[in-house]
Amino acid sequence: LSIPGLTNMLFFPLSTACAFRYNGLSFVYLIYLLLIPLFSEPTKTTMQGHTGRLLKSLCFTSLSFLLLHIIFQITINSLEAGKKIEPNFNCSTWEKTLRQIGFESVKGADAGNGIRVFVPDIGMFIASLTIWLVCRKVVQKPVTEDAAQYNMQFENEEMAGREKLEPDDALIYEDLDVEGCDGEEFEETTKLKLLRRIASLASKLKELIGKIITTAGKVVVTILLGSTGMMLPSLTSAVYFFVFLGLCTWWSCCQVFDPLIFSCLCVLMAIFSAGHLIGLYLYQLQFFQEVVPPGDFYARLFGVSAIVQTNCSSTWRIIAGEENVWYHYVNPILLLVMYYTLATLIRLWLQEPVTDDEGKSDNREEDKEPACSSAPMEAKRRRSLWYASHYPTDERKLLSMTQDEYKPSDVLLVTVNGTPVDYHSIHPTLPMENGPAKADMYSTPQYKWEPSDDMSEKKEEEEEEEGEEFNEEEKENSKVHAMVSVFHFIMKQSYICALIAMMAWSITYHSWLTFVLLIWSCTLWMIRNRRKYAMISSPFMVVYGNLLLMLQYIWSIKLHKHELPEIEDFLVRKAPGELASKILFTITFWLLLRQHLTEKKALQLKEASLSEVKIGSDEENEEKGKDRVWAYELYTKDELQEREVPEEEEEDEDDEQDIMKVLGKLVMAMFIKYWIYVCGGMFFFVSFEGRIVMYKIIYMMLFLFCVVLYQVHYEWWRRILKYFWMSVVVYTMLVLIFIYTYQFESFGSLWKNMTGLDENKLEDLGLERFSVAMLFTRIFIPTSFLLVCILHLHYFHDHFLQLTDLKAVTSKQDNTIYSHAKVNGRVYLIINRLVHQDGSLPDITMMSLTAGNEKEEDKNLEEHGDKSTEESSEEGREGEDEKEKDKEKEENEEDDDSEAEETTDLKNKWHLVIDRLTVLFLKFLEYFHKMQVFVWWLLELHIIKIVSSYILWVTVKEVSLFNFVFVIAWALALPYAQLRPLASSICTVWTCVIIICKMLYQLTSINPATFSSNCTRPWENETNAKKEELKSSVLYSGPVDPAEWVGLRKSDSLLVYLRNNLLMLAILAFEVTIYRHQEYYRCRNNLTAPVTKTIFHDITRVHLDDGILNCAKYFINYFFYKFGLETCFLMSVNVIGQRMDFYAMIHAFWLIAVLYRRRRKAIAEIWPKYCCFLGCIIIFQYFLCIGIPPAPCKDYPWRNPQTSFNSNIIKWLYFPDFIVRPNPVFLVYDFMLLLCASLQRQTFEDENKAAVRIMAGDNVEICMNLDAASFSQHNPVPDFIHCRSYLDMYKVIIFSYLFWFVLTIIFITGTTRISIFCMGYLVACFYFLLFGGDLLLKPIRSILRYWDWLIAYNVFVITMKNILSIGACGYIHALINNSCWLIQAFSLACTVKGYKMPEDDSKCKLPSGEAGIIWDSICFAFLLLQRRVFMSYYFLHVVADIKASQILASR
């Protein structure tokens, strides 16, 4: 343990004795506690002076108190035993007096409180005695030279005892002589290293302590003054608080603290805080609390709080104050910490004087009486030689800084070109300590150590060391320069922090005074050159902020309303803790003012220097130059480096500027492109946070207006975008002002009188009074949105308009995104900045190798250096040293050459790695760009499908009159492509209308109960519905809200309620974005839109037979082009099978009508009518799903008792009903059929285009009268029969054996179920199995005739099953009772969910497993596929092969 640590340990027992016992004895300990930091640390001198007396007196005092306690307890117990005093003597005059002195009876006390009375004295006696003995033992030890020369008080002790230090110097000198022995070289080397480390640590420690004293001490004192002042506002604490404000304001005005004035201020504050602590401690005694009660006006005014109170029934118990809060207990602790900090700083300042006068007086004393005898002077000289021979250059500098006296041989000289200059010969009148110190304020001078005569042989070694030190200093300076530049950048942006602090202050603490800050900050935010005007107004910010702090401090004093009345909405009494956050806000004002004044001074200096250059003549400049050289003759390190290596620095600066420009442009480009999405997200955040009110709906209106205009007219949108953001900013400011001002008491009645609205309607507008937390969120969110919009308007808007201008098409080379040259240049620039200054990145292995070599070289150099220093002390070995040095130099040069070759090889390898990584990274960028282009193209192909599908899915999930517009738009736009842009625009506008209506309906002023209908349930003879069914009816299940039929309802979570509409709006905006992006991309790159909408643009009909991969690519491109018609037929059968109702029957009739045309060209002629039918039937069915409004309480006519409709029949007929509503999911299948039919219509149109036929091939059907054998040699497709590739093998399987596989499917379809319809499949299967071989050899016309009859039968079965489903689903009860044979013969069973089926009857079981058209649909798909095989040119090769086989067999 160190001596200061031992003495500081007295703080804990003393503070404990004062905190756990409040009386006169503990008050004495408090005095000791306050005296400890004022006394010097224990040394041999001080232990014989005041410090020793203080420790002795503390031991004697604590022992005396302990003995007096024992005497008092014996006396009081004996008197009580002799009944000479009354038993209940508590709070009597003599007892109260003795107790407050420190002597109290522990009668009836528990163990803890009994110990509390005696332990402070016992503990203090043991602690003080122990510390006194330890300090006395430590200081009696002899102080060695190694410890003394680094002691902070070595200067004072050396002056007092130079005679005792002389033997130590002699010992060091003997050590230097002994070091010449060869046997102890290793031990002396370790000792030198240890001494060197100790010296460096001591110098760094002293430098750190000096910085803490000069800089951090002031900061800590200022922080403690502010913390103590605001902890418990009162008249006494106001002294600390106002001093704190004064210091911070003085600092913000760029004024320097005078050390003398600041020291005097610290002394005054220490005295005042000590008195404050003493007064606060004395107030805890019962006497002073009776004189001035705790709740008294003066006690509250001066901040004197009763931490403990006394109860006469149990005087030995500590009772905490009744109204105390946590800051009442923290306040004394802060006071004590502040006092100790101030006292410690004062003591350190007194022990280390740094003024010029003291230095001069010391020099004068040295001149008048040379107290140092010859022996001490020799010791100093030896010590300096020892330092010079054993320490590196920088450590010698640090050690010279730590020495108490300077010598002419140790002076640090400032040089111009590296040669030593005797500073004192230039200016001998100035003291040595007052060297050229003014330059240190602005730059780092280049110092050189003046070599002595004894050090000439080590000049080369020192130059090498200085070169290494110079490189290390350069690295450190670059790091410091980077940190300084970052700090300067932060300081330059301090105006942003100040503006945000103004808004946060006004939002957090609501009053008319802070409302000024809100208007002030919003005004500055709206100004374009806000930084300039923020700087100009910074003095007013500081003055106004200080004024608010002072007013808040005064009103935070704990006074009653009649003592200090509150001013409503201006000054309200609040908790002291709020002062801390307000001080944090004010710090930004102080920083801004300091930055403003700093920049102003820099500008004035720059203007002054420019004026001197312009006005001053050459002669004056020369004279000034001479004066400056004569005065200091110095250049800073930066200037020397600029003169020595200007080209390298310029290159580095250019590289740094380039890399910063590149990174800055990348970040700026990202913000320009994507910041508008942040603004859009903030629109949603503002609109949907919390309860929906009118001002939030207006926010959403503004956003939706912007989206609609973007969708409908792009150029108009770009023109008004600036005015749109300006209107948003203005509106947000109005919202902030209205919400903020409505929180004042008088504004509620004012708004009611002005608008005539009641309180509920004002709340719907957004005007209501909030709590502090709610007010913060209500104002903070619009404020953040305001900042986001202002940033976009001022920084990114103009560039965004340039980026999104589709007309201003630049060349591909000028485009950053698609220019490979620019990308390559930027990548090479960024990677080159990763390398060393010599141009290569350090390899990890190389770094480890070189590090190991460097360590070995350092060890060798140290050993050689130590040997040379030892041998230099002997005069007879100088020649040998020179020879050894020459050998060492030659060896080092050879090692350097070999190392240089190794490092160059490693660097060359690393360059190859870097080049390879660069190429890979560029390839990655290229592939990533290609992937982006591919994704955009894929979205362009399929976005219309995504948009239409999602919109119809939303309309199906939420059936309402609002969504009927979407169904009409897309049901007509899909088959007619020219209507699709109009449909997108209509849907965008209508979606915005729906969103606004749904938001308006959430207002609390709209109450559905006021206009809902309550329908009366009919009697049993008035409807054909059952009683259980009526309970589920929309009319009778509850109040009927007419808005629900339109599409409006109340919702707890509005964002979830509007989720589908918002996603629909986003998809519609994304659709138009895709089209515009592709247009923009093609214009930028001089491209045209592809003829065919395919994935692989280089794959055509020619590549179909090249291989499996090209064949797969071809079908990915043109599958729907080739098989779209068959896909539509399958989708139609899917609709029939999924629905099995009246409209499925209509689809079946249309399928029969289309298939009846047989030829593709005939089908293409009727296809537009079919598409029109599909669109119209979807619109009509959705209208049926909407039905009539339920509000009039009128039921549908088929619910009359005269009709024979039941719920199953109504469902099969797809009639609207309030009990059994039509299933809107069926419309999804109809829509899928419509989508495929629309695409097929486009395919029919593309077939007539020559460019498409060249790319995809034609879809012309084969001539039905061709002879396969004669036409095979003229067949346009290659022969695949001999299987030359895997693709030919697949062709053989499909075209040769698919016919027999289809017959197998027909057989399975006929045998899986038992019904009359399955008999036809079996007959057809056996017929084709019997005559199939001969059938394949017939002409194509004959083959298709038989095959089309089979397809017709398949479609007939599907249609009949659909028609018979009315019996299976609607009249199943009657069929079970009367016609069970019919159910079994035709396998009648309802396969669609939602119908009410009877329970299982053992008399007539329903064939549910054998019903349905699943196998019929599978059979239909394979029949269509085989028909395409028959009509293919590839099939002719199969027929020709069969005929050839038969001819060969007949021979």
Explain how this protein is built.
One of its GO terms (cellular component) is membrane. The chain crosses the membrane at residues 20-38, 58-76, 115-135, 208-226, 232-253, 260-283, 329-350, 509-527, 534-555, 575-593, 666-686, 692-711, 723-742, 770-793, 933-953, 959-977, 982-1001, 1054-1075, 1118-1136, 1142-1158, 1170-1191, 1218-1239, 1289-1308, 1314-1337, 1349-1376, 1406-1425. Residues 21-381, 452-802 form the Piezo TM1-24 domain. Keywords: Membrane, Transmembrane, Transmembrane helix. Among the domains are: 3-143, no CATH class; 210-351, no CATH class; 489-597, no CATH class; 662-805, no CATH class; 1101-1182 and 1212-1450, no CATH class. The model is unreliable at 1-6, 142-187, 353-380, 385-460, 617-653, 811-819 and 833-881 (pLDDT under 50). The strands form two sheets. The protein has a two-stranded antiparallel ribbon. Helices cover 71% and strands 1% of the residues. It is elongated, with a radius of gyration of 50 Å. It is mainly alpha-helical.
In short:
This protein is mostly helical.
